[in-house]
Structure to design on (460 residues):
C-alpha cells in the first residue's frame, strides 16, 4: 500500500459532520443502543429479584441496600476507569471487555450462596455495566453528525429505560413461569452473544485511530464502509480537533472547563440517584403494602416506558428550546412525581403512574446531562468526560438507595422516604441554572464549548 499522501487530505470531522447519516453510522449507533439496553435490563432485574434472594440468603429486605450498592459501586469504578482507558486503548476494545464482564458475573449471580459472594459478583458485573457507558456514548457521539449529535446520543441512551421496560415485562412473565433465576441466565447469555456481534461489526472510533494511533490504513477501511465514493489507498486523513497531550483526566479541568465539569456532575448525581431509588426500592415498598412480586415487576416496567420517552427526546428538546427551558421543569416535575410515588405505593395504578412520570421527567434531566457531556468535551477526552459524569451519576445511584434503605430500616413510611429523595430533583435544578450561566459566559468570552456551541446547535 502506498504511503499516505498529505496532498490528498480528507477531513474526517467534516466528512461526518457535513455528510448524510448513513446506514453504517445508524448500525453503529444501534449496536451501542443494544449495550445500553443491557444496563437497563440489569438495573431493574436485581430489584425485582431482591425479595427472593433475600429469603434464600436469610437477610432482611431492609438490609439489601449494600447489595444494591455493590453493583452501583462497581459501575462507578467502571465508568471512572474505563473512560480514560478507552481514550487510551480504544472505545471498541474496552466496550467488548465490559460486555463480557456483564455476561459472566450476571450468570454467576445465580450461584451466590452468601451475602459477600453476592456482593462480589454484583460489584464485578457493575464494573462492566459502568465501564461500557462512556465507551458507547463516545462512539455514538463521534459517528453522529454535529447537527444531530445531542439528539442521537439521547436517543441511543433511551435504550437504557427501554431495556428496563422490556426487562420488567419479561420478568413479569418469567417469575411465575420459570422462577427468578431465569432472569439472570437470560441476562447473562444475551451480552455474550452481543459481544460477538460487536467484535465483528462495530468499528473503532475514527477520531481515536487518528489522534492516538495515526492509523491511516485503519481509518481508510472504516471510511470506505460509509462513504459512497471510493477512498484511495494513499489518502491522508485529518481532523479539525487538536490532540491533547498527557493523561486525559486533568484536561477535564483545563482551558476553562473546570467549573462546567463540576457543575454538570451534580445533575448527574441527583438525577440518577432519584431514578435508581424509584427502580430498586419500589418493589420493596409495594411488597410491604401486600402487592405481589409479579405485579411489582409490572409496575417497575412503567419507569422504563417513561424513561424511554424522556431520554429519547431530551437532546432534541434541548437543541430546540435550550438548556433551561427543558432541564429546569424536568427536574422539578421529577421531584413532584417522586413525592407522588411515596403516597401512591399502596396502589398498583397510582404507583405505575408516578413511577412512569419519574421516568419521563428524570429521563429528560439525565438524558440532557449526558447530551451536554457528549458535546462539551473534545474527542481526545470525550470518553473520559462522559465517563466521569456517569461516575458521578453512578455514585448518586449508590448514595440514594443507601439513604432509602436506612430510612426504611428506621421505620419511615414510603411517603416520608420519597419526600427526602425528591430533594435531589430540587438540588439538580439549582445546578442546572449555574451550569447554564457558565455555558453563556464561556461563549461570551469567545471560547466555543466544543461541538455544540461551535455549530450553534445547543442554545441556553
Amino acid at each position: 500500500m502506498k504511503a499516505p499522501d498529505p496532498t490528498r487530505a480528507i477531513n474526517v470531522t467534516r466528512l461526518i459532520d457535513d455528510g448524510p447519516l448513513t446506514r453504517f453510522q445508524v448500525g453503529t449507533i444501534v449496536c451501542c443502543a443494544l449495550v445500553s439496553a443491557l444496563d437497563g435490563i440489569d438495573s431493574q432485574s436485581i430489584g425485582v429479584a431482591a425479595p427472593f434472594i433475600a429469603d434464600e440468603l436469610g437477610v432482611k429486605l431492609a438490609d439489601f441496600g449494600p447489595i444494591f450498592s455493590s453493583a452501583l459501586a462497581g459501575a462507578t469504578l467502571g465508568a471512572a476507569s474505563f473512560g480514560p482507558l478507552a481514550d487510551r486503548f480504544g472505545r471498541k476494545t474496552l466496550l467488548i471487555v465490559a460486555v463480557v464482564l456483564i455476561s459472566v458475573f450476571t450468570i454467576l449471580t445465580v450461584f451466590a450462596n452468601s451475602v459477600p459472594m453476592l456482593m462480589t459478583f454484583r460489584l464485578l458485573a457493575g464494573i462492566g455495566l459502568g465501564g461500557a457507558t462512556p465507551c458507547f456514548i463516545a462512539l455514538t457521539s463521534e459517528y453522529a453528525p454535529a447537527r444531530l449529535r445531542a439528539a442521537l446520543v439521547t436517543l441511543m441512551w433511551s435504550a437504557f429505560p427501554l431495556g428496563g421496560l422490556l426487562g420488567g415485562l419479561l420478568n413479569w412473565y418469567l417469575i411465575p413461569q420459570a422462577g427468578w433465576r431465569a432472569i439472570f441466565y437470560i441476562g447473562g447469555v444475551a451480552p455474550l452473544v452481543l459481544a460477538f456481534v460487536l467484535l465483528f461489526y462495530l468499528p473503532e472510533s475514527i477520531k481515536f485511530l487518528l489522534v492516538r494511533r495515526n492509523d491511516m490504513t485503519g481509518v481508510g477501511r472504516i471510511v470506505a464502509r460509509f462513504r459512497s465514493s471510493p477512498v484511495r489507498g494513499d489518502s491522508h486523513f485529518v481532523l479539525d480537533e487538536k490532540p491533547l497531550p498527557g493523561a486525559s483526566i486533568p484536561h477535564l479541568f483545563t482551558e476553562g472547563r473546570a467549573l462546567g465539569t463540576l457543575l454538570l456532575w451534580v445533575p448527574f448525581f441527583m438525577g440518577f440517584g432519584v431514578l435508581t431509588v424509584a427502580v430498586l426500592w419500589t418493589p420493596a415498598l409495594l411488597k410491604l403494602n401486600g402487592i405481589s412480586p409479579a405485579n411489582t415487576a409490572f409496575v417497575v416496567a412503567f419507569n422504563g416506558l417513561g424513561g424511554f420517552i424522556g431520554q429519547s427526546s431530551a437532546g432534541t428538546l434541548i437543541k430546540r428550546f435550550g438548556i433551561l427551558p427543558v432541564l429546569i421543569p424536568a427536574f422539578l416535575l421529577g421531584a413532584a412525581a417522586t413525592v407522588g410515588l411515596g403516597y401512591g405505593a399502596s396502589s398498583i395504578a397510582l404507583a405505575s403512574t408516578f413511577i412512569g412520570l419519574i421516568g419521563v421527567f428524570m429521563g429528560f434531566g439525565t438524558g440532557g446531562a449526558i447530551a451536554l457531556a457528549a458535546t462539551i468535551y473534545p474527542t481526545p477526552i470525550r470518553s473520559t468526560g462522559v465517563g466521569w459524569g456517569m461516575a458521578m451519576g453512578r455514585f448518586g445511584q449508590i448514595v440514594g438507595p443507601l439513604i432509602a434503605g436506612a430510612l426504611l430500616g428506621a421505620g419511615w413510611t414510603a411517603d416520608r422516604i420519597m419526600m427526602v429523595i425528591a430533594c435531589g430533583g430540587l438540588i439538580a435544578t439549582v445546578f442546572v441554572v449555574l451550569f447554564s450561566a457558565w455555558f453563556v459566559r464561556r461563549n461570551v468570552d469567545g471560547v466555543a464549548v466544543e461541538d455544540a456551541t461551535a455549530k450553534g446547535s445547543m442554545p441556553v
Notes: The first strand starts at residue 5 and ends at 11. The CA atoms of residues 338 and 422 lie 5 Å apart.
